[in-house]
Amino acid sequence: MKPNIVLVITDDQGYGDIAAHGNQMIKTPNLDQLYQKSLRLTNFHVDPTCAPTRSALMTGRYSTRTGVWHTIMGRSLMDTNEVTMAEVLKSNGYQTGLFGKWHLGDNYPLRPQDQGFETVVQHGGGGVGQTPDDWQNDYFDDTYLRLGKPEKFKGYCTDIWFDEALKFIDANKSKPFFAYISTNAPHGPYLVDKKYSEPYADKGVAGNMAPFYGMITNVDENMGRLLSRLKEWNLEENTILIFMTDNGTAAGVQRPDQKDLSKKQQRRLSKGKPVTIDIWPGFNAGMRGTKGSAYDGGHRVPCYIYWPGGKLTGGRDVNQLTAHIDLLPTLAELCGLTISSELKLDGTSLVPILNGKKEALRNRTLVVHSQRIESPEKWRKSSVMTERWRLVGQNELYDILSDPGQTKNVAAEYAGVVKYLTAEYEKWWNSLTPQFSRYVAIGIGSKAENPSHLTCHDWHAPIEQVPWNHQLIAKNPIANGFWIVDIAEPGTYEITLRCRPESAYHPLKKGIARIQIGDQKQEQNVAEGDLSTTFTIELPRGQKKLQTWLDEGNGVTRGAFFVEIFRKE
């Protein structure tokens, strides 16, 4: 039988946030055990933020090529022409399941169930508590989506993702399966049971790093459960288990804050007297940069591969330059699957180096960048990488073998290397430019999702105009943006505007509501106390720009943060 695949990816956990990598504070015994027996890709890179990493991981193609270069603003929506890992495996007889974070679109045809996953239990947006997520969610006893249907769960978010994945694995033991366990932890907000965070706080771990570490320890506990069940169910031998993370650490290396001092110490400090404190500052494995950075600390992450039946074991380091885009072609070869050349993958199979060919893949160039804006800018937060060199932006060159902390810019000494890497970047950039002017549209009016629920998380707008989480929504920001929608069927549509989700029962302000979709415009009065306002409009098939306005008078206008679109049958 083909090997099973379990791919675990955590959110915002960096290379240094594992004890086995030299962190003397954090407790990760199960990941340490996996480290000891796995093949370890020690020079493995992802994008510096989460949605881009996930699109590249799922497709084997550079994230920007898939339409994803941000985590919000409609630029975390993956082009539906892409073929995902789940679609490849499903077409080859695998049962496919996703548990946790998707972050590549919350509406048809962008959802995981539209992109090859048959079993789905997920939160909305890029994290629990983000705008598309259930309004009441706070990591504990939350409401998540099972194949798009809200369902109340009991327990902590990470425990639920692993619980549901284990149920899926148990139900499919006799068939090849692909379980994608994608945790939102340890992404903020940093919420976890105190039994996980307090041991770190008691040892002097500063600020938010104590719950951040606690969330990782909870992930580690769940990894232990997963490893035990695979062995108990006699699945360990024929299961390819991969553990990785999606970008550099979000906690980073922190300096003590005054809130970390005792009241006595704060009084001494206020009087100008010296204070000695013992605070754990964090650990980044000697790397420069954290999440979002073009330096290695932003994108070099752990990746462990363990498959006893395929002899991928033994606690061996594999130090060639590798990346997220390589995992799809690697898994395809390990599972004996053929991927069409029409997919034009950017990644390459790592099977030769996993099998010990030390001279393979020594002369490749890879590029990562962090854009986080509406339209990509050339050289923005970019890193052009070879096994020896890192060109960060246009003017910084580092010899990563002799200077892993990227402290000495040697661009002036190695002008030829800069010229070569610049040319490599130019080729890469030029290959991406056709995507920059395109939009990935949200489908409306399809039988697969009717009504559709849009949120301001996916507005196209300047970043300061996008309330991407519940806390920002609660502040009622004066903000607006537009969506790109694709009308699946012509007909009569009801478009309902709200400033909160329907479950929140939050009234609109008295004033005038307006919408424009394509060339069609409508407006109507909003009475004091109305929870929503609904427009009825005839729409033709096709892609349109949709924008809303809630005018309150006195020059105050904001967009509707939540919009429901229903096609009448």
The end-to-end distance, rounded to whole angstroms, is: 46 Å
* Class per helix and strand makeup: alpha/beta
Helix share, percent: 10-25%
- Whole-number radius of gyration? 24 Å
Query: How is the main sheet built?
Result: 10 strands, mixed
Spans where pLDDT lies below 50 across 5 or more residues? none
Please state roughly what percent of the residues sit in beta strands, choosing from under 5%, 5-15%, 15-25%, 25-35%, 35-45% or over 45%.
15-25%
E-strand count: 26
Write the layout of secondary structure elements.
Layout: E1 4-10, H1 29-37, E2 39-41, E3 44-45, H2 50-59, H3 85-90, E4 95-100, E5 119-122, E6 143-146, E7 149-152, H4 157-171, E8 177-182, H5 194-202, H6 209-232, E9 239-245, H7 263-270, E10 303-306, E11 316-318, E12 322-323, H8 327-334, H9 351-354, E13 366-369, E14 382-385, E15 389-392, E16 396-399, H10 415-432, E17 442-444, E18 452-455, H11 470-474, E19 482-487, E20 491-498, E21 511-517, E22 520-526, E23 533-539, E24 542-553, E25 556-558, E26 562-567
Parallel strand pairs: 1-8, 1-9, 2-11, 3-12, 4-5, 4-8, 17-19
Antiparallel strand pairs: 2-10, 5-6, 6-7, 9-10, 13-14, 14-15, 15-16, 18-26, 19-24, 20-23, 20-26, 21-22, 21-24, 24-25
